[in-house]
Amino acid sequence: MDTSYHYLLNLAIILLSTKVLGLLTRKVKMPQVVGALLAGLLLGPAVLDILTETEFIHKTAEVGVIVLMFCAGLETDIQELKKSGKASFVIALIGVLVPLAGGFGVAYFFNRPGMIDSDAACSAFLQNVFIGIILTATSVSITVETLKEIGKLKTRSGNAILGAAIIDDILGIIGLTIITSMADASVNVAVVLLKIVAFFVFAGVIGVLFHKLYKKWSEKAERGLQRHVIIAFVLCLLMSYVAEVFFGVADITGAFIAGLIVSSTQRTKYLASRFDTLSYMYLSPVFFASIGLKVELPAMTPTIVLFAAVLVVVALLTKIVGCGLGAKMCGYKNYQSLRIGVGMISRGEVALIVASKGTEVGLLGTNFLGPVVLVVIITTIITPILLKPVFKRGPAMPMPAGEGLSEGFEQLSRIQDREDREDK
């Protein structure tokens, strides 16, 4: 049998299973992205072992998350993002420090003789700090897809989550670089920090130049709108490539900034509709399924299971408390702070990448990999489940469908519209 075309079968299975499970999760009032994540988990090595992550799936998933973040940038209100800039930094900073301390504390208690033996090459102190570094990670792609699905991406809370997640990504890179430099002398922290600063300077210059040229061109071009999609996609891919290869910043950060650059042009709605179709039909299902396909659960002793349970609880609470506290300090209301905290819970593929890097340099023992994987699975699945109800809390609660437009209903609608504008 010719196996060179198995990628077509794999792709068909992924698209069908993610859609079927997505519809089932929607039936029980959960976002469809939960179904896509479950599809990958069920099909992968952790459960049925029908599919494994191939190079094709991996690369397609990478393009998928890049397009997803580009769409998030495309649909972001830049003025609102500027307003939440300082708040986003505070939210991200506290949302990194609290999980770092929580992860270190849990690892410090369990990572010792008589509890869990570690085969990692580095000192126990560095190993414990690294567990904390893993918990600081945030996979904003899961949150973005969920907020888009429930129509809350452009709210004030949604913008704060996006801004904080980008800063969280930068802080995570810095933290990972520092800890790996202690384990690997070839990594220079100062060079990494300089590259990060240089990237944002570069992005600012490119953004201004591209925006001016693109705006002039788009105002003259009344026909052939397809070319606008190609140009926007080229910018997205180039910014992702440059960010990752030349500056050591995550490719999704480059994609998000590319989306921001294009977002203020008059073709934004047209571009967003085209990229949403591409993402919905092909790229996003593969990306979310690929997260589940990465999961492999090793054998775990009762002590390791206990450690995993405690680590999961700490992972959930530290992001909610840390990011929520940061939001509260910046003047957000209680329901908005809760939304922001929940939106930052998911660790997703980001934590898996960090864990993989730690394993390579001797910062994470094999006995601790299983609990980390469990944290990734649970936080990734629970985030979209929790986001929907927390975004129903507060004044943005949608009105029941099918109600008659009575005088009381109209009055309540006017009140809610006013409060919705306050949240946006």
Summarize, please.
One of its GO terms (cellular component) is membrane. It is found in: Membrane. Helix content is 76%, strand content 0%.
Write up this protein.
With about 425 residues, the protein is an all-alpha fold. It has a single domain (about 60-390), classed as Na+/H+ antiporter like fold (Up-down Bundle), CATH 1.20.1530.20. The protein has helices spanning about 5-25, 30-45, 55-75, 80-85, 85-110, 125-135, 140-150, 155-185, 190-220, 225-245, 250-265, 270-295, 300-330, 335-345, 350-360, 365-390, 405-424. The chain starts with 5 loop residues before the first helix and ends with a helix.
Q: How confident overall, as mean pLDDT?
A: 81
What's the number of domains?
1
Order of helices and strands: HHHHHHHHHHHHHHHHH
The N- and C-terminal alpha carbons lie at a distance of: 56 Å
What is the CATH level 1 assignment? Mainly Alpha
CATH architecture: Up-down Bundle
Q: Estimate the helix proportion, in percent.
A: over 70%
Helix/strand structural class: mainly alpha
Question: What name does the CATH topology carry?
Answer: Na+/H+ antiporter like fold
In total, the number of strands is 0
